[in-house]
Protein 1
Amino acid sequence: MKASIASKLDQLVDRLDEVTRLLSTEEATRDMESFRKLTREHAELTPVVEEYQAFRQCEADMRSAEELLADPDMRELAQAELEDGKQRLVVLELALQKLLLPRDPNDERNIFLEVRAGTGGDESALFAADLFRMYSRFAERNRWQVEIVSASESDLGGYKEIIAEVQGRGAFAKLKFESGVHRVQRVPDTETQGRIHTSAATVAVLPEVEDVDVDIKDTDLRIETMRAGGAGGQHVNKTESA
């Protein structure tokens, strides 16, 4: 591991200890906004520090195995542990590099998931239903809540279009790369001659936006009123009916 990465990880270990200490103080419990920020930072730092500790433990185990190489009775076992340790270090270092990548500010937000049938007729609607079922199962495994906002079903039980809100921590981070066109080649249920069809469906994953206060100035408004014309006398000419 590069010295710069190790130094950065050591700083994160110290920061996690500091955040843990701050969370236990009375000042943090009084200010709920500060408490929420510290809790969020603690949740973000914990997996990184745990992975780094596993990396350091693996290094320590390898050093212990190297010392056993001098013992003829333990040499074969120590060599096997060294080979296994080298592979684990590569995996752990790659995982740490991914965890250190800059985070998308929307990663922890809830999402709106939209699945639309594309080319393929009824088969594409069935494929869209399969996709939505897959995402729903994935959400269940992550203990997220899925609430259907709107749905347009096809005659065969598929979906021409379905929109759902997925509520759960890290929903956008795990599903944001699902956006795009999905294609499948298979023998559909609608096919009577066993031919393979290509169908497509589009998926959109949008992060839930935060509530914002909008201040509209009176100078930004333009109000127009209109009066009827034609027969009707003074009543028509004076009444602003639109």
Note: DSSP finds seven helices and five strands in the chain.
Protein 2
Amino acid sequence: MKAMILAAGRGKRMQPLTNLTPKPLLKVAGKPLIEHIIEKLVDAGITEIVINHAWLGDQLENSLGDGSRWGVKIDYSPEPEGGLETAGGIIKALPLLGRDPFWVINGDIFIDADLRDLPTELASGDLAHLMLVENPEHNPKGDFALKDGRVSEKKPEDDGYTFAGIGLYSPELFADYAAGFRPLKPLLVHAMSKQQVSACVLKGRWTDVGTPARLSQLNQEVEDKQ
């Protein structure tokens, strides 16, 4: 099965740490974030990984190589300076991802959850399956509503969950959209309106490593746990 790691972001909120280093190569417990993700995907049975990049992408390719050290095949999907946003990056990489559903995971998150139970297929008629998490401090209201395994756009009165940046997508989700700069949320919301998106809650530690303070705190927590 294939997966895509999103690694094209500029990481402006992580400056100055990302001035000379792409965010996915920032280290947690002495190891780049993206290597932690690759190991989780390999444990989950992923055999082929596509990584997009824009800012300092050569560093990612030089650091990770062809994936042979993890027993997987890594292909790269370069993007223009500034990147193409999430959906735009996925659309550009579709020729590398094939015709079957594929996992996409943000390259700037840290998880210690076991991903071996991730589904490999979508329910009939579904275009996406999302992993959600309990709302962190920096996103207290959440992103989406979840009821009976179905996810929808959150209304003010709904209890929300935060999108974990991990999803299983059918290529058909992107079929009607042109290449170019394009965020993912509008595509998901459109599919949700047609009852084509399922979701479940991810258990275990999950951190959106979006600021230097969060990275420092995460490193301290992981160090204390070891």
Note: Helices lie at 33-43, 57-64, 85-97, 185-193, 212-225.
